[in-house]
TrEMBL record:
InterPro entries: Trm112-like (IPR005651). Coiled coil: none annotated. Belongs to the UPF0434 family. This is UPF0434 protein NFI88_12435. Transmembrane segments: none annotated. It comes from Rhizosaccharibacter radicis. Pfam families: Trm112p. HAMAP family: UPF0434.
């Protein structure tokens, strides 16, 4: 069973092929926050149950 403090890891192969839906740029994985970060777009996309939620409406603005 997975808890909020024990997130499901993202498949590294998936990280190699995903790009930001806004900027089409590369994403980096923030393990601490369990997010995929797009520095170009200034967005962080959440990962829920090991699945990246790549919807701009679901993303968090980063500074």
């Amino acid at each position: 069973m997975t808890t909020a403090s024990d997130p499901v890891p993202v498949d590294p192969r998936l990280l190699e092929i995903l790009v930001c839906p806004v900027s089409k740029g590369r994403l980096t994985y923030d393990r601490e926050r369990n997010e995929l970060v797009s520095p170009q777009a200034g967005l962080a996309f959440p990962i829920r149950d090991g699945i990246p939620i790549m919807l701009p409406d679901e993303a968090r603005q980063i500074g």
